[in-house]
């Protein structure tokens, strides 16, 4: 996946955020979740990068979630309609 550049459309030529990563199949979800943490949840970049993430693996079918999640979210992931299993990383 190529690096992503988020621009500020209200200010001409103003970049808002540049993101990229290494790590194979987890790159797209990590980049999107980090961007959402910064842009939607107003986290600073360091906190956004360190925040736990969720990734869906297609083969084998499973949901992988990092770090500390609430028990409620953990149950939702395990009981999802995709019948995915949860794995702590």
Automatic annotation (TrEMBL):
Gene Ontology CC, one term: plasma membrane
Residues at which L-glutamate binds: 24
Single annotated GO MF: glutathione hydrolase activity
Protein name, per record: Uncharacterized protein
Gene Ontology process terms (BP): glutathione catabolic process
InterPro entries referenced in this protein's UniProt entry, alphabetically: GGT_peptidase, GGT_ssub_C, Ntn_hydrolases_N
Pfam families: G_glu_transpept
